[in-house]
Phosphotransferase family protein (Thalassococcus arenae), 337 residues
Amino acid sequence: MDLNAVAEWMARHVDGFAGPLRATKFEIGQSNPTYRLDSPSGSYVLRRKPSGQLLKSAHAVDREFRVQKALAGTDVPVPRMLALCEDEAVIGAMFYVMEHVAGRNIADPSMPDETPDSRAAIIDEMNRVLAAIHDVDLVATGLSDFGPPGHYYERQLVRWTKQYKASETEEIAEIEGLIDWLGAQMPPDDGNRTLVHGDFRIDNLLFAADGPACRAVLDWELSTLGHPFADLAGVIMQWQLPPGMQGRGLAGIDRKAAGLPDDAAFVARYCARRGLTVPGNFGYYLAFAFFRMAAILQGVKKRALDGNASNPEKALQLGAFVPHFASLGLKSRDWHG
């Protein structure tokens, strides 16, 4: 990345900026490469589209910028957006610059370094923030046109099936079975339409250094208007995976002893916060979450094979999980908490 070009552009578009720049690439951000920028005027974060040929509608950093800017001043904590560069001639790709938020990133939801009480507080804060995202006033924030109208799950099934097929490298029977079942069991549109983050999990949040308060929700690339249970199911999906840095899940952990809620308790607490009834068909939403993540990971794998991944080795490791996610999706159909 041409740091001189970035510094020249920031001098024109970011108030108070003074160069020169030093850049450090974050290991997180498989989809959109992310960098910490340090300069005499302070620290910033730059997110850019990756290089190479990209799937249509993917890597929408302009949408990330828009939604986070709109959320400033709401109950959803986000970094302050500073400037968006749509001119690809500057560094070869669209990018945006935001403030650097100091905080701790928790990569492992089992939180081995925390106490049972602090784990409980952090997970409840995660629950609160998720409810806050879904309670955002779309008209007041100017986000009422942030996603197309109509049945969210019908639209999403078409989108992610198409994305998966565009990235397919081999036929996986479990994926085909899951796609067929999701189409056949599609729930009716209940009119529940909110802002959705699209990738809400604990490692996309920044927490205060000295407590459970969430300082920022990150990685809004997949955000849109849709059904809030998509985000809720995404959290529960993550927890079905193995614990540790590879799976980043809670499978097999004694949650009660650890101070962590079980799946049903987390879902019930979220629904209580928003005045909703716990859905009887939550297994559908969970199965869909597994399918969508499988499609995302297949795209990551394809970019690695094509030489366009931000971190090729990590991308291939993630891509190897595609069949596993499909199998878990099939098993989730009868979820009852």
